[in-house]
Design a protein that fits this description.
This protein is mainly α. It has helices at residues 5-31, 35-45, 56-93, 102-129. The termini are far apart.
Length: 130
């Protein structure tokens, strides 16, 4: 049995949770390309006429930009998860206490995720309002 097995198992479970979340974000980024189709159906369901104020290319580029943001954040999260896993695995068996340097990275990542979510919400609000 490995020394500090419980702590190593918890570290691995946390790592896998980060990976699952990252894959979910990246899959959501891919799904955003189909998002405009959903919004067009929603507009029809609400009996709102289509508009010609916003060109289709602008809609597509906005959707792709937001999707790219989610894909990029998912990829960054995978990299951060791998770094964290290795650092904490080393710290678990280390006799001395080490300070974690991930607080700033976690804050930046959270702000980026919130920003991408706000962009998506604004885009949705603008699309439904048109």
């Amino acid at each position: 049995m490995r020394r500090n097995f419980g702590e190593h198992s918890a570290n691995e479970r946390t790592y896998l949770a980060w990976i699952r979340t990252s894959i979910g974000l990246m899959a959501f980024g891919f799904l955003l390309e189909k998002f405009t189709l959903f919004l067009d159906y929603l507009r029809l369901a609400l009996n709102q006429p289509g508009t010609t104020q916003e060109p289709a290319t602008m809609q597509e580029s906005a959707t792709r930009l937001i999707g790219l943001a989610f894909l990029t954040l998912g990829a960054i999260m995978i990299g951060m998860a791998a770094l964290r896993y290795r650092l904490y695995a080393r710290q678990i068996d280390s006799p001395e206490l080490e300070k974690s340097n991930f607080v700033l990275f976690d804050t930046i990542l959270g702000a980026c995720l919130a920003g991408a979510g706000i962009l998506l919400g604004l885009y949705l609000a603008l699309r439904v309002a048109l």
